[in-house]
Write a structure and sequence with these properties.
heterodimer; A: 296 residues; mainly alpha; Serine Threonine Protein Phosphatase 5, Tetratricopeptide repeat; B: 536 residues; alpha/beta; D-Maltodextrin-Binding Protein, domain 2; eight-stranded mixed sheet; 21 helices; 49% helix; 10% strand
């Protein structure tokens, strides 16, 4: 095989088909040195990017100290990536003082001035600092930032996630509007902007739960819970809770067939556990009501 | 003796000593070089009789199958376990596998920081199940409850951090010889009213024989388990009515909120009836029992001074091995709907256990022997491994299809009882202390249910509010560091766009954060309403 092709194979590039007549290259010392430099350069770059990935993996695994040590040792990381990584690692070491929040907000504001993906990430993190990291949250400022995030990066995942976070604040944290229906209507507008199914699911479910907390009539919020359940993929005990909840609330609202379907699905899909007997007994009542031919 | 002769004798003694030392080193002592390359350490606090022997037996078989691996069992007393864990993880000296429970106070930060999720491993079949009915099933699906506890308590919803070894239920352990002497029959009472009859017979027997015999071995721990069990059953009807979310149960945070809202109190007739029954139970234990720990209750039972011991099945092996009389294990007689004290409150039979598995074993994230540790966990919770554990420990298995030995079959609880959780004598945080502190107001010389209930409603609001605040704080703290993780995952996704595992993990992390965040906000609102005086 020709030396150039050997190099291609070494660095994992696809090997081009060999032409019938390949011009013969003479091996000169300069070419050998160039080849070695290219090879080692490629390997160093690959090692560097693997190390950067390792550093981010430490952050994902909640090992902020290890991530910081690794970041300090890394060379060749561009300045914006390093700056973002420093802020992200600092944010992992919570809770933070308001002074720290202000300092990090300043750094993020600079990063957010760009137009790349780093800027969008920084913008989202700024909103989060005002929403959850400050000892006394500044929800108004957080909302401003989420809105400007939506204007600058309308298609971004961060905009979608931001709408969910804003929705949660509106459901529970803001003092106004006092009327729960008005509160829910505002969040419904945000829900319209969320197109990622799993994020829609999360916000819809929270809308249903909030409406239940505010004691609105069941039929006003049951559709949100059903919509969330249809997306599926929920975590932990939530899918079990939701299945039982839809079954029980449907029973209370007189939707007996729907109630039966959800309870039967629970018993079929979920391994027996603490609430199995409760569901079995309720299902018997639902079936009895259906056989009587009327709502409870 | 000449000098030369003495030297020769000395030399002979020296050579003989040297040779015998060499012989000893190479034949009798621990090998100078361990022939096993890997050592896996497993730490737990189940140091009562049974589990250590069960785990030893599993280890012996595992080491036969895996000549390169040594497994060491580290037994740590429960009283110091939390401090021990904290110190060893901080010092990077923790064993490869550790027992942990989500209910352990003050350790909520440990799982995400120090434990490695087993989710990926659990989705693959357990190779040690080959040739059994579980062959080919994902490891996760081989547990009788498919690790339900992890679904409720996982530090990162969607991730499984532990595998489990056993199932637990609450039982009444009976000294059958003593029962025969007292009643002339070994038959258990069918319900709580028959238990009352038995209490009277025990008192009569004690008087006639001039022996100090009481119905129950008493201690603060055993009394608490028993009273929580009975009160929970009696209060099921109240909790069912409080379940406005419709999940057919009430989490502790909801019970606290509903209490603070005034939706229930200890003044309710149903709750007072329950307290009255607890007073009856209290009278059946040795005076001063609240000053004792569980070991004292066990000793009373073993000395034949108590007819019953109410406890979890974790005590079973110790009792059976240490008692010089046969120990029967009964399901607890429950009040029926015809009970003269609490019958009107009963909605039916209530749960005295479930198939939810426990004795959770977690993997140390920094273990240098991850593969070997996971492999041992696979064996320990395989059909064969779990069967060995059950046979040698006397504890129930956690793995499907493992036949339950006849002598422990009575530990299994069928799903035949209501379990709404919720309203009880304690419902999180410092509420148990409030109950214990005021209990004398019911059982003391001038005591009454009314006085006790009034004191509870005087002191409980502060404890309930404190517990709710802790829950809210925990939810908020769970949220705070997650943004970093979400952003880091998104960066990794950008560099490896075709990796579905990263996308799934981010999606799950975001969902988990949304759940915790909404909970924190909801609780903050509830606390605000309480503090504004809108509710109690």
């Amino acid at each position: 095989m020709k030396p150039a092709l050997i190099h291609a194979e070494l660095v994992g590039l696809p090997i081009p088909a060999q032409p019938a007549e390949v011009p013969r290259l003479s091996v000169t010392p300069r070419r050998v040195v160039l080849c070695v430099l290219l090879s080692t350069g490629g390997m160093m770059q690959a090692r560097e990017s693997a190390s950067v990935a390792k550093m981010w993996t430490y952050v994902v695994d909640s090992q902020a100290l290890e991530a910081r040590v690794m970041l300090d040792d890394l060379e060749g990381v561009d300045a914006r990536t390093r700056e973002l990584a420093l802020v992200v690692i600092a944010l992992a070491k919570t809770p933070m003082s308001d002074g720290d929040c202000q300092r990090l907000d300043g750094q993020l504001a600079q990063l957010a001035e760009g137009s790349d993906e780093i800027a969008a990430r920084a913008h989202y993190l700024r909103a989060r600092i005002y929403q959850i990291q400050l000892a006394t949250p500044d929800y108004a400022r957080a909302e401003e930032l989420y809105r400007s995030l939506a204007r600058r990066w309308p298609q971004s995942h961060w905009t979608q996630l931001g709408m969910v976070k804003l929705g949660l604040v509106k459901l529970y944290a803001l003092k106004t509007p006092a009327d729960p229906r008005a509160r829910l209507a505002e969040v419904a507008k945000l829900l319209e902007q969320v197109t990622e199914p799993t994020l829609r699911r999360d916000l819809a479910m929270q809308m249903g739960w909030a409406a239940n907390f505010y004691e609105l009539p069941i039929d006003e919020y049951l559709p949100y819970l059903i919509a969330a359940d249809r997306v599926g993929g929920m975590l932990g005990i939530t899918p079990d809770d939701l299945m039982i909840q839809i079954g029980e609330l449907s029973f209370r609202a007189g939707h007996l067939e729907q109630s039966r379907a959800y309870f039967e699905r629970f018993l079929a899909e979920v391994v027996p556990g603490g609430r199995t007997y409760n569901v079995q007994q309720r299902l018997l009542e639902v079936i009895a009501k259906i056989e009587e031919g009327g709502p409870p | 003796m000449s000098k030369g002769k003495a030297r020769r004798i000395g030399l002979v003694i020296f050579v003989a000593s040297y040779l015998s030392a060499v012989y000893w080193v190479f034949t009798k002592s621990t090998p100078l070089i361990d022939e096993r390359k890997i050592t896996v350490r497993l730490a737990h606090w189940q140091i009562e009789k049974g589990p250590p022997e069960g785990i030893d037996a599993v280890i012996a078989r595992y080491e036969e199958l895996n000549p390169e691996v040594r497994v060491q069992q580290v037994k740590v007393p429960g009283q110091v376990y939390r401090q021990w864990m904290r110190a060893n993880f901080a010092g990077n000296n923790a064993p490869d596998i550790v027992e942990y429970g989500a209910w352990l106070d003050g350790l909520a930060d440990l799982p995400v920081r120090y434990f490695d999720p087993l989710t990926k491993d659990l989705l693959k079949p357990n190779p040690y199940n080959e040739g059994t009915t579980l062959e080919g099933l994902p490891w996760l699906n081989t547990f009788v409850d498919e690790l339900q506890e992890q679904r409720v308590n996982s530090p990162e919803p969607g991730q499984y951090y532990a595998v489990t070894l056993t199932q637990i239920s609450l039982r009444l352990f009976c000294n059958v010889n003593l029962l025969r002497k007292i009643t002339g029959s070994p038959e258990p009472p069918v319900d709580f009213d028959e238990m009352r009859g038995l209490f009277a017979k025990v008192a009569d027997y004690s008087r006639r024989q001039q022996e100090s015999v009481v119905p129950f071995g008493g201690s603060r721990d055993n009394a608490n388990w028993m009273m929580v069990f009975y009160m929970g059953g009696i209060a099921n009807g109240v909790t069912q009515k409080l379940d406005t979310t419709g999940i057919l149960g009430l989490y502790a945070r909801e019970t606290q909120w509903k209490y603070l809202r005034g939706d229930w109190s200890y003044q309710m007739p149903a709750i007072k009836a329950g307290l009255s029954l607890l007073g009856e139970l209290s009278d059946q234990m040795q005076p001063g029992y609240m000053g004792f720990l569980r070991d004292e209750a066990v000793r009373q039972f073993l000395r034949g001074e108590a007819l019953f011991l109410f406890a979890g099945t974790w005590e079973a092996t110790s009792l059976r091995q240490l008692a010089d009389f046969p120990v029967e294990v009964w399901r607890c007689p429950q009040p029926s709907v015809n009970d003269p004290v609490v019958g009107k409150q009963m909605i039916g039979h209530y749960a005295d256990g479930s198939s939810v598995t426990s004795f959770g074993l977690y993997l140390n994230k920094r273990s240098p022997n991850r593969a070997a540790a996971v492999d041992f966990l696979r064996y320990l919770t395989s059909y064969e491994g779990n069967k060995i554990f059950m046979e040698k420990s006397g504890w129930l298995p956690s793995i499907k299809d493992v036949p339950v030995a006849p002598e422990i079959a009575s530990f299994l609880s069928p799903d035949d009882g209501y379990a709404f959780g919720g309203v009880n004598i304690n419902f999180g945080g410092g509420t148990r202390a409030v109950f214990e502190r005021n209990f004398y107001l019911m059982v003391g010389p001038e005591g009454s249910v009314d006085k006790f209930a009034a004191a509870l409603d005087r002191d409980m609001p502060e404890a309930a509010r404190g517990a709710l605040a802790v829950e809210g704080r925990a939810a908020r703290w769970a949220v705070l560091p997650q943004d970093s993780r979400v952003v880091a995952l998104e960066v990794l996704m950008a560099t490896d766009p075709g990796n579905p595992a990263l996308a799934l993990r981010r999606e799950r992390l975001e969902a988990a954060q949304n759940l915790s965040e909404s909970r924190a906000l909801l609780i903050a609102r509830q606390l605000e309403m309480i503090d504004a005086g809108k509710i109690r």
